[in-house]
Specification:
By secondary structure, the protein is α+β, with helices and mostly antiparallel strands. Helices cover about 40% and strands about 20% of the residues.
Amino acid sequence: MSAIGDRFNRITGKTRFVVCRLVVSLHGSEVAPLLGTLNRAAREAIAADGDLGVLGEQLETIAAQLLELQPYWRSACNEGDVFWSEGEAGDYVNELFADSAQRYQGDFDLADAPETAGIGDPDAPLTLPVTENAIVSLTIAAEGEAPDLETDLAELDALTDGLKALGKLHYQERLRAVQVHFAPAQFGDCLTDEQLLTNYPELIPL
C-alpha cells in the first residue's frame, strides 16, 4: 500500500485494518511454564467459542509472559499487511492461519490440558520430560494503525514494543481477529532444533 493510497483511503473514510503474524522462538528449560499458559489460553478460547474479549485477554496474558521470558528469546520473525477492506483482511488472516497450522505437529486436545495432565494441581509432581525449545505464533487483525507491529520485529527492542502493543490493542478494543499457534502442542512433547529450522526457516536470531 503506497503512502498516497493510504492517504486517499483515509480521506474517503475507509476503515484501515492491520494484519500481523509475530513468531517467537525461545530456548531454555525455564520456558516450560509457558506451555501451561498456552494450553490454558487454548482451553479458555475453546470454552469462549471465539469471543474476542476472551481471546484478547488470553493474547495479552501470553504476550506478558513472553516479555517476562525475554532472556530466553532465541529468534523471531514477522509479516503482515494493511487492508482497507474487512473481507480482504479476513482472507489474509485465514491464509496465515492455514500456513501456521500446517507447520505444527498435532492439534490441541482438551484431554491434554493442564488440569487433566496433572499440571494445574499445585500438589501434583511434574514428571513429564521438559522441552528446552518452544515456539509461539501470534496472528492478529486490528482496526486502525499499529506502528509498533508494522515494522521489522526481529530485533530485541522492536519485538518488546510489538508484544506490548498487542495488550494495548486489546484494551483499546481494536482487535478483530486473534489466533495462537504453538509448539510443543502438549506436555511431554519436545521441539527439536531441526524441527524449528524445517518449519520456520525465516526465523532470524536475536
